Amino acid sequence: MARVKVLSEYCKSCRLCVEICPKGVLQIGDKTNAKGYYTAIVVDEEKCNGCTLCGIVCPDVAIEVYK
Amino acid sequence: MQKVFGRPKGLTEVAFSFCPGCTHGIIMRLVGEVLEELEIIEDTIGVSPVGCAGFCQDFFSCDFVGAAHGRAQAVGTGIKRALPDRIVFTYQGDGDIAAIGTQHAIHTAARGEKITSIMVNNAIYGMTGGQMAPTTLEGMKTSTSPYGRDLVINGYPLDLPKTIATLDGVKYVASVSVDSPKNILQAKKAIKKAFQVQQAGLGFALVSVLSTCPTNWGLSPVDSLKWLRENMMPVYEMGELKVAEEVKNL
Ligand SMILES: Cc1ncc(C[n+]2csc(CCOP(=O)(O)OP(=O)(O)O)c2C)c(N)n1
Ligand code: SF4
Known about the structure:
The structure holds two protein chains of two kinds.
Chain A: E1 3-6, H1 16-20, E2 26-32, E3 38-42, H2 53-57, E4 63-66
Antiparallel strand pairs in A: 1-4, 2-3
Chain B: E1 3-5, H1 24-37, E2 44-48, H2 56-59, E3 63-66, H3 72-82, E4 87-93, H4 94-100, H5 102-111, E5 116-121, E6 124-125, E7 131-132, H6 151-154, H7 160-164, E8 170-177, H8 181-199, E9 204-210, H9 214-217, H10 221-232, E10 239-243, H11 245-248
Parallel strand pairs in B: 2-3, 2-4, 4-5, 5-9, 8-9
Antiparallel strand pairs in B: 6-7, 8-10
Helix pairs in contact in B: 1-8, 4-5
Bound molecules: thiamine diphosphate (TPP) and iron/sulfur cluster.
């Protein structure tokens, strides 16, 4: 059991987390944050195994992982 | 459930000012993690550069002093000599440390100042619009080398860490990259060691980190990582370039 959380106000839509997640848990959503970026969203939470790869590559520390 | 990944205590809550996908943010997070893990946030004084990292005093939770362009290591030297019990580090772009600040980079190292320097090499001047830097690769197009860097006219790329590693006052030099999770973890190890060298009072330590500038390279953040891996990593000597005997025992 693991959970990934995107802190949308920090997200800048760079897609690095989307590309790195081996399980396809993250996608870019259709809602913008206050800065106008379409932020990453969790689309398949069940599949997250808490590997933290998304957090490691995130340049804006916009991801938290719980296990 | 327990938090296994999140913002380290070495960083404040302030969002980074970097462009989307710029790996300056990864490098700053690694430094923030190291400050937390070594429990030195309260004892550390950072020196900020001029360039895209020029706002880093807002992002780190330790004390900070701002320096003029290329002068971070001179300022760091003064702080460390006046307050030798503090941990002093500089965070500088390649334009800051390897162009206008080259004299300080060389002499800080030659004097063996007991400070730690983090160099972020994105092969251009990011903040001012992507001009050619000493670190720009052969043939690389920038706003001031629109036909590509010509070695005959512009000279060869400067591999600063490799140069610094030859100096006697230097105890630790590493050249790392943040293009993949594996390399990011390795970069963190090198940054941690560079701070431990200072904690042990051994001498000067430099970590150069290859970094992307998607905005001025004109590439997406994902393609920038690939470009860095394929073009920069073969040119710059990678790995631990100098590990003094006393550092091996740390
Ligand atoms: C004395 C002086 N000369 C020139 C400048 C203009 N300037 C500002 S940032 C910069 C280069 C920054 O490049 P780099 O250190 O590689 O950092 P980056 O922005 O790429 O992270 C220059 C030349 C300045 N601010 N001060
Ligand atoms: S200009 Fe380049 S180095 Fe500066 S924040 Fe943007 S991507 Fe990063």
